[in-house]
Amino acid sequence: MTYETILTERTDDGVGIVRLNRPKQLNALNATVMRELTDALLEFDKDDAIRCLLITGDDRAFAAGADIKEMAAASAVDMFTRDTISLWDRVTKLTKPLIGVVSGWCLGGGMELAMACDMLVASESAKFGQPEVTIGVIPGAGGTQRLTRAVGKALAMEMILNNRTLTAAEAANFGLVNRIYPVESYFAEALKLAQDIAKRAPLAVRLAKEAINKAFETGLSEGIDYERRAFYFLFASEDQKEGMTAFVEKRDPQWKGK
Ligand code: CAA
Questions:
Q1: Is residue 127 domain-resident?
Q2: Does any domain span residue 92?
Q3: How far is Cα 234 from Cα 9, in angstroms, rounded to an integer?
Q4: Quick check: CB of 20 below 6 Å from ligand 1?
Q5: Which residues are catalytic?
Q6: Could you read off the pLDDT of 119-150 as tens digits, one per residue?
Q7: Separation between Cα atoms, residue 138 and residue 108, nearest integer Å
Q8: pLDDT tens profile 12-55
């Protein structure tokens, strides 16, 4: 498949990579990017040989937000009927782990995309913000909800109401970012993390991701009940037998994803 605004790549060891490719526009998210990005991620998600997904931009920008030029003249009805933001819902329903790899600007819809990822690896130059009020709107792709859950009400208010940005180190301190590396090595380090995750038991990884996400969507006892059922369910898998037998036999497991 060839795309106009993204590049895709796959490694032999199970990592699917999607790279936003509008460097001159700081990877601003227009309707084509949103559609292509979602299509590419869903393709990788369906592919049994892919076990972990990476989404990235370039060193200067992960993404500087929704494409302001594309939406500047739109009416409310245009925005409502195009409804490109609803594509994000499909990104949050991916079954495989999705790692956002962020360098430079990560703003507005770009920050919302990053927060829709399961983990984030950042370069030291990453800068996170929700600047929508500076152009007369508010975050529209989950920012008011995900940022508030991630950093708490006070800081979310300051960031969204007054365009306070976070450095990579601040984002890591608030738990938004897993790891920070120098610009020269952040992508290679993120790839190593993805390659490690790709070696784990695929069904277990999938159910673990689902169970963690339940922590945001349900009450504690419902989440714990879900987790326990998923745990028991895995005893119906070949991978559980293989994983535990391999431990006892002191060898590496060979996963089948079954
Ligand atoms: N949309 C469209 N084009 C954008 C863009 C965006 N979000 N961000 C940057 N660009 C373009 C610029 O227009 C410029 O293009 P030209 O060379 O053709 O003029 C090019 O990218 C480079 O940008 P700058 O010259 O502005 O670069 P800079 O280094 O001086 O500034 C910046 C960088 C601070 C990120 C600045 O570009 C900026 O403020 N961008 C807009 C950020 C923003 O407001 N994002 C939120 C968008 S709304 C949103 O995302 C809604 C939502 O929740 C879904």
A1: yes
A2: yes
A3: 31
A4: no
A5: 66, 109, 112, 132
A6: 999 999 999 999 999 999 999 999 999 999 99
A7: 9
A8: 999 999 999 999 999 999 999 999 999 999 999 999 999 999 99
Confidence of residue 2 (pLDDT cuts 50, 70, 90): confident
Ligand 1 pocket test: which of 24, 26, 138 has the largest number of ligand atoms within 8 Å of its C-beta?
A: 26
CATH number of the domain at 58, please: 3.90.226.10
Decide if 48 is inside a domain: yes
Range of 128's domain?
6-198
What predicted TM-score, i.e. pTM, was given to this entire model?
0.96
CB burial of residue 39 (10 Å; 0-12, 13-18, 19+): middle
53 and 101 share one domain? yes
> Taking 90 as the threshold, does the pLDDT of residue 174 lie above it?
yes
> How many domains, the chain?
2
Q: Which two tokens stand for residue 73?
A: 């003249």
What pairing do the DSSP bridges indicate for beta strands 6-10 and 15-20? Answer: antiparallel
Ligand 1 pocket, 33 CB below 6 A? Answer: no
Given 157, 176, 198, the domain boundary residue is: 198
